[in-house]
Amino acid sequence: xxxxxxxxxxRPARRPREPGSRRTPESTLGGRSLxxxxxxxxxxxxxxxxxxxxxxxxxxxxxxxGQEARNRSLAVAQTFANSPGMxxxxxxxxxxxxxxxxxxxxxxxxxxxxIVVMNTDGIRYTHPRPDRIGKKFVGTxxxxxxxxxxxxxxxxxIGRLVQAVVPVRGAGGxxxxxxSSGITTAHxxxxxxxxxxxxxxxxxxxxxxxxxxTALVSRRLLRQTHGLGPREMTRMYEHHDAVLHAxxxxxxxxxxxxxxxxxNDEAQRLLDLPPDAERRQVLDLGLDRGTAELLASGRMxxxxxxxxxxxxxxxxxxxxxxxxxxxxxxxxxxxxxxxRTLSGxxxxxxERLDMLYAAGVGIGTSLDxxxxxxxxxxxxxxxFADFATVDLFDAVLDGEEPEARGALRRTAVSAIRKxxxxxxxxxxxxxxxxxxxxxxxxxxRAVLEARLAGSPGWRAQDLERTEQVVEFGIHSxxxxxxxxxxxxxxxxxxxxxxxxxxxxxDEVVLAEELVARAAIxxxxxxxxxxxxGMAVTLQRSLLPRTLPEQNxxxxxxxxxxxxxxVGGDWFDVLPLxxxxxxxxxxxxxxxxxxxxATMGRLRTAVHNFSALDLPPEELLGLLDELVxxxxxxxxxxxxxxxxxxxxxxxxxxxxxxxxxxxxxxxxPPPALVRPDGRVEYLExxxxxxxxxxxxxxxxxxxxxxxxxxxxxYTDGLVEDRERDIDTGLELLRxxxxxxxxxxxxxxxxxxxxxxxxxxxxxxxxxxxxHTRALGAGQVAEWEVPMDPAAVGEVRxxxxxxxxxWDLEELSFTTELILSELVTNAIRYxxxxxxxxxxxxxxxxxxxxxxxxxxxHLRYAAMxxxxxxxxxxxxxxxxxxxxxxxxxxxxxxxxxPLP
Length: 898
Hints:
Elements: H1 2-5, H2 25-28, H3 34-81, H4 86-91, H5 95-110, E1 114-118, H6 142-145, E2 150-156, E3 159-169, E4 175-184, H7 185-225, H8 230-246, E5 250-255, E6 260-263, H9 265-271, H10 289-297, E7 301-308, E8 311-319, E9 328-335, H11 340-362, H12 369-380, E10 387-392, H13 394-397, E11 408-415, E12 428-429, H14 436-443, E13 447-449, H15 456-459, H16 463-472, E14 476-484, E15 487-496, H17 505-542, E16 553-560, E17 567-575, E18 581-591, H18 593-610, H19 616-636, E19 646-654, E20 659-665, E21 671-673, E22 679-681, E23 700-703, E24 709-713, H20 725-738, H21 744-755, E25 764-771, E26 779-784, H22 790-804, H23 811-828, E27 833-839, E28 842-849, H24 869-876, E29 879-885, E30 888-896
Antiparallel strand pairs: 1-4, 2-3, 3-4, 5-6, 5-9, 7-8, 8-9, 10-11, 10-15, 11-12, 13-14, 14-15, 16-25, 17-18, 18-19, 19-20, 20-23, 21-22, 21-24, 24-25, 26-27, 27-28, 28-30, 29-30
Keywords: Cell membrane, Hydrolase, Kinase, Membrane, Transferase, Transmembrane, Transmembrane helix
Protein name: Histidine kinase
Domain GAF: 368-532
């Protein structure tokens, strides 16, 4: 206890002993100190314990000696009596001759003093001393003759001994002889005598050890008591106890296990402790959680203020084991109720700082104006206000810069309870000039209406509604403008109902800080909304708004822009000559205006290149060169950013031959749903993404059965942050198999239902094309000899075919077109020359030859004899052109059907 209360190096002064005075018993024990007395007492106790242990050991050894002699004698006698040949030896003419050697061998082997075999009269047949053979056995034998066992301690011919007598049974269990074995107690006890010095040495060592440990304990006690005797210690304890309970400062001593060891009177009063508080756990004394945890923790604190009941206590606490002392802690308590006001202000400041920090990290987590406004109201309620509303101009919600006048729209509301008669979310509000909100917007500063019931300007907004608000219990209001620079975006209102005190000017400052932080996030979200809207507008303007009319494919498509930003995905359906249709899907890596603009440039390029009727691999090659040039231009211009990657897939389907040519540049492979429902991914060489250059692209050509579904898509459909592309492709296969029997529209919807993530982070483009075939009845072909006279025969055949198609109205113009084209092929081209008519949405005339030279439209001079044929063709048709084939070229012309 003295150690826990604190050490003191100031010992009481020792008075010198007067001459002639008698020594007290304390002096006889080695001084007046309590440590010396304890030392002597402990040495005596240890010595007595050692002596008692030695005596007990000796007694135990003596007892064990006798018991061992009995057990050995009996065991040897019984073993020898039951040994083989014993009965035969007793019945032999000379038992001694047979048994004496055996008995002596057994005696030596068992370390016994004697083994004696005798007849039923007690006459010995064997003995260690041969002169004793034939004499009477000394001991009790009658119980053994009766079939029992005799074990006794007697004074025999060789001294004091323990002997056992056992019977030897013959046929029928009859006793035919006796066997006795014995050992002298001196022989057995010799082992104990030899061990006694070891025992004494061990006792001495134990005594020395105990004495040393006692000396250490006494030395520790001497250090603890500072050499004080019992009377001095009693006086010092009484003095310490008096001081401890007299000071006007609470003192708490807590043990290492968190139990209360001591609490003085002042601590009892300050903490309102129960009478039986000592020796109980501090956490179980009914103290407030913070104070109890502090006292039980033992951590070092200085003037830490805790509210206990109606008192503010300044607590100082130090652990007691810093200098090797016992585990625990000492705490002093000082009543600091006068600091309550200061502490309350500090707590309010801490709460405000905490709220501002929460506003910094919790407001503006998304670039959405409405969500940012909701985050502000959710933070303010209930920590700062009971109700919070945000009203913004419609232009802000659309991403535009507003004018600080006109109506606002209620954007967000948070409340501690439902049913408040405030304007609901989505309502348009026009504040009257006298209202606090209008003054706030007009003056661009916060306005405090401490008591709404007495505010005629606020009540003028809507007399019926404001009366309901007051009756609901809302009594105080702060309005703060949402301002960034000179731009005012709206107004935030904080309402109070639960706490009776109105808002004060300090809370107005806090409200302004909160709204100022939120205003930055709202303005950022507004700017993002504007930029995103511009990008979406640009993107949608660059994408096809409607699909062109054609009969080769029945097409359904979906295009979903990313939620987080505009990407560079695109698709297109391009009618080509000869009733063919080209399908295109592509993806520019990245998001934003740059990606959308790049996508528009690539889509325009694909339109232009497709008009040349190029094979897919050549078109992708030209597109690759274009992207490389774009990258070069953007790299030279530091303000631009290069295209970090673009992929594209280009497919051309011919409904006459039902063949489809496909090439891709780093794009996901197309899927094919066959008419029987089987789904497979077409093995089209991937190629490098556009812009990397260096390697040519490859085209795969395959024949599609009528009714097949060709599925093209961008990687946003099959890949996102939560799944890799292999998983997405497998999910797409499953969705296509599930909807294989549906229409293209149904397949599109089924794929999106199965694969669309909740919030896509990339654009998604999807095309499902159902293939059709141009029947034999819609196609007519002729081979033309290289003879100008054959032109007339072709014209006649074409007129007959048009009659069969009920297209006689087109006979004249078709004859003129064919005459010019076939004549040019025979005159300037090479064999073979062919003519093909296709009846589709238009009448298509095609003239092919083996030459790769192409005619050009030009204006003929007045004196020129030729050069007007193609001019007539262009005037008589809607479209005409040239496409090249591996065998030459085809010149085609389209006429509208009547």
